[in-house]
Design goal:
Elements lengths: L7 E5 L4 H12 L3 E6 L5 H7 L4 E5 L5 H14 L5 E4 L14 H29 L4 E5 L12 H21 L5 E6 L18 H4 L4 H14 L3 E3 L2 H12 L1 H11 L17 E4 L5 H12 L3 E6 L2 H13 L3 E6 L5 H14 L5 E4 L5 E2 L7 H29 L3 E6 L12 H21 L4 E8 L11 E2 L4 H18 L3 H14 L3 E4 L1 H12 L1 H8 L4 H10 L21
Parallel strand pairs: 1-2, 1-4, 2-3, 4-5, 5-6, 6-7, 8-9, 8-11, 9-10, 11-13, 12-15, 13-14, 14-16
Helix pairs in contact: 1-7, 3-4, 4-5, 4-13, 5-14, 8-9, 9-14, 10-16, 12-13, 13-14, 17-18
């Protein structure tokens, strides 16, 4: 069902051509428009806004307190918005290994955390006011097909796309719609920064900002999950689903890769292996496997005790291993350790970016710090490990292999694991882009997408819910399912070795991972709607339908059932 034209519109990111076009289009149809950006009042923006009834305001989306103050000011002065459009982004161009950690952190805080925080504060206003509203996030076709020499930008867009899908399912009961608008390559200020591509930017950037604005207006009325601003974006989307390998090859050739690419080297000659999160679960199993095959293993974990325990297990079996303490979200610590490993042990032949943690909760239940920590460990940990060691492998000139741990969550969006799904989807895009760039150097990159592996991820997960009973129930169900259906971590370890040996791009592990992978490719719409059923309301219904004995882990004491309360 279509919605009437909104009366109050907030456009965040109005200092770029797309944002300005959206603000002006809504102003011309009679809406009160608030155009916000880091420098919304600069002469370039103001000159175009002066002719229309547009209110310009400055806001730094990288500062959560500034976003909260801006939202409160809008509410006080104008009321609750009918429509919020986010298109605040920065672009990074160039080779993956040439980006500094500060480059990544700037993009991380603006493109992902900033956009999600803007969505949260205005969504909360809409929910509290019981206002039927709409949120539109302008992302990019790079969210599902890596843009040449713009892997960081593509990864950030992927995270926002998945967060939008999770937020859509979460806000649907409140009659609030969420749409992700995906342009192909819009003719914005980004084009001047990619002039080093091997083709003309006039052909590469074909979509005008006003066409994107028209798509936003239509999407705000029709409320689709995803809207495409041009045929290129639509074609890329379907090709990425139907022929992912062919799409990767096409993008690689388009940017000059593929002609001089060579197979990954030293895949089987594993003399030194570096593994993060090797203190337990899949990381420990992989360390034991690699050591059993004769490799020296660098065992890292944030917990020094578990890292040492893994090393002792390896040494007890006659292997070679060295323990190190590492918080993968700490860029300085990771860079220092990478340099230390190179100087003391040499350049690793295989790097396994495996460290992770569990967060369960919806978009609105996550605080800014929750998003920062979750994406910092999963996404930025993979970025740092890939960047520092890829540079070492390139300098050595003998190839190597990088294995990045994603999940079955990389194939969809689960509303009750919003940050986890966003991170895992972004990891897949990072790996795809990195694989193209490193192929000419004989360095392979694999993305591991695990199904149910019996680790401590569920039992140690942080559950973000104000209802203690429901949190306990969800953990109990998850733990029981993992114990009943989850396989031994050694299955994942064997898959990691197979991926390194055969230079596999995407590796689903377990039948449920393959099923999810197939459904996401063959039936993306129904698959998305099916995953969207995993909402707080439906989990509560499931809890009330299941017998109490299934809601407790075998070691947990009996708890009073909420369904029997008066």
């Amino acid at each position: 069902m279509t919605k009437p034209n909104p009366k109050l519109v907030v456009v965040i990111g109005a200092n770029n051509p797309v944002g300005r076009a959206i603000a002006l289009r809504y102003a011309r149809i009679g809406a009160t428009v608030i155009a916000a950006a880091t420098s919304a009042r600069d002469p370039r923006t103001s000159a175009q806004m002066d002719t229309e009834p547009v209110h310009t305001q400055d806001v730094d989306v990288a500062d959560p307190s500034a976003v909260a103050a801006f939202a409160a000011r809008v509410h006080t002065e104008h009321g609750v918005p009918d429509l919020v459009v986010t298109c605040a982004t920065v672009q990074l161009t160039g080779r993956f290994v040439d980006h500094t950690t500060s480059d990544w952190e700037q993009l991380f805080r603006i493109n992902i955390l900033g956009v999600i925080e803007c969505c949260k504060v205005f969504a909360e206003q809409m929910v509290n006011d019981q206002n039927r509203g709409q949120i539109v996030n302008v992302v990019s076709s790079g969210a599902y097909v890596p843009i040449p020499l713009s892997t960081p930008f593509s990864a950030s867009m992927s995270a926002v796309l998945i967060a939008s899908e999770c937020l859509r399912a979460e806000l649907s009961p409140h009659r609030i719609g969420v749409t992700a608008v995906c342009p192909g390559f819009a003719n914005t200020t980004f084009d001047t920064s990619i002039s080093n591509l091997d083709h003309g930017t006039a052909d590469f950037y074909s979509t005008e900002p006003d066409a994107v604005a028209a798509t936003v207006v239509h999407a705000a009325k029709a409320n689709p999950a995803i809207a495409f601003a041009d045929s290129q974006a639509r074609n890329d989307y379907w090709q990425s689903l139907r022929s992912p390998a062919a799409t990767r090859r096409r993008v690689a050739r388009h940017n000059g890769y593929g002609h001089d690419s060579k197979p990954a080297q030293r895949g089987k000659d594993r003399r030194l292996v570096f593994i993060t999160g090797a203190g337990s679960g899949i990381g420990r199993a992989a360390a034991l496997r690699f050591a059993a095959e004769g490799a020296a293993v660098i065992v890292t974990d944030i917990d020094p005790t578990t890292a040492q325990q893994t090393v002792e297990l390896i040494r007890a079996r006659g292997g070679t291993a060295f323990p190190y303490v590492l918080d993968v979200s700490d860029a300085a610590a990771f860079e220092s350790l990478a340099a230390q490993v190179r100087d003391v042990h040499g350049v690793p032949d295989v790097v396994v970016n495996n460290a992770g943690m569990g967060y369960g909760g919806t978009v609105l239940e996550h605080s800014y710090r929750d998003w920062e920590r979750m994406l910092g460990v999963h996404l930025m940990g993979v970025v740092y490990g890939s960047t520092f060691f890829a540079a070492q492998m390139i300098d050595r000139g003998e190839g190597g292999h990088i294995v990045n741990t994603a999940s079955v969550a990389a194939f969809g969006a689960l509303p009750l694991a919003s940050s986890y799904c966003a991170a895992k989807n972004a990891i897949k895009i990072v790996s795809d882009g990195l694989r193209m760039e490193l192929a000419p150097h004989g360095i392979g990159v694999s993305t591991m997408c695990y199904g149910l592996i019996n680790t401590n991820l569920v039992t140690d997960a942080v559950l973000l819910n104000t209802d203690p009973y429901l949190s306990t129930t969800a953990r109990s169900i998850g733990t029981r399912v993992m114990r009943m259906l989850g396989c031994d971590p050694d299955v994942a370890a064997r898959a990691i070795i197979r991926a390194a040996d055969r230079d596999l791009a995407v590796v689903p592990v377990r039948p449920e991972a393959w099923v999810s992978y197939g459904l996401s490719r063959l039936f993306p719409g129904p698959s998305r709607r099916l995953l969207g059923l995993a909402t707080r309301r439906n989990v509560d219904r499931l809890e009330r339908a299941l017998p109490d004995r299934l809601l407790r882990t075998p070691a947990a004491p009996a708890q009073p059932s909420r369904r029997r309360s008066p």
